[in-house]
Amino acid sequence: MPARCLDGNAIAAEIRAEVARDAASLLDDGRPVKLAAVLVGSDEASRLYAESQRRLCGTVGFAYELVELPADAAQDDLHAAIDRLNADASITGIILQLPLPAPLDTALAQWRIDPYKDVEGVNPANIGLLFYGEPLIQPCTALAVLEMIRRSGAALRGARAVVMGQSTIVGRPVTMALLARMATVTGCHIATRDLAEHTRQAEILVVAVGKPRLVGAELVRPGAVVVDVGINRVVERDAGGREVKRTVGDVDFESVRAVAGTITPVPGGVGPVTVAMLLRNTIEAARKQRQRR
Ligand code: NAD
After folding, report:
1. Is 214 in the pocket of ligand 1 (CB under 6 A)?
2. Angle at which helices 270-292 and 140-152 cross, to 10°
3. Is the confidence at residue 183, as pLDDT, over 90?
4. Is 282 part of any domain?
């Protein structure tokens, strides 16, 4: 029997509906929610992305502000813009649009964001709190992965979990979050020997490597929950020999679906849930800022 496929778009819609209810009740309380995005050197694609963020915020009742800096902005200019947003009580959350133009330092700018307004969960302070098992605001992708596992119905306590990919923004936070929930976690990466020996043990397999369709059925334990974080743009030929651009995951969906118990598709899996988690994090930030005062 093919694996159950989790519908990320439907899950994201449910989360957005919850967020919209929460935003409305915060507004009733006199605490409107507002998200600010900082964009350095706005090209056309970034502007379009910012517009889609503005529309998304509108659907859940958040206000949205785009702060634009010229492409030749200095690191100090960027920090000054972030400082202003940190100090502005009307701003609930801050997003830093990446990539920043060279030679700006991304990590330094992320450090600058107030951890209570860091709705992407990228400030090293927020990543560090995850390490201590006392998260303030968690990285959105890790939250999306946890949500997918929760929806699969799999119990995490004592489960054998393997996380392929150990980047600081995806793989390691997922590894930490699973450990915090008492799974037994193996972190695999580019230097892992005998990858299949690890992955074939996994009751829960999370893949975040950035390699199109790297994980085939031979790497998957029958009945496993497989969460595919990868987003890869590929150009392939269709049946008529024409070139088509596709978005595919790190998992070979068709072959893995035949052995896994539950699987997330790409597109329409972890991606939309990650965006929904950014909105949920913004509500979380509003509540935590209130507790801080
Ligand atoms: P990254 O390049 O920073 O890290 C890749 C990791 O994979 C590294 O730890 C590397 O050692 C490991 N790796 C590479 N090849 C491997 C192999 N053959 N076997 C085992 N491990 C291997 O990538 P990232 O930023 O963590 O992103 C990973 C993927 O997730 C990308 O496709 C990215 O687009 C996607 N992504 C998705 C979301 C989302 O919301 N769905 C968010 C962020 C990133």
Report:
1. yes
2. 110
3. yes
4. no
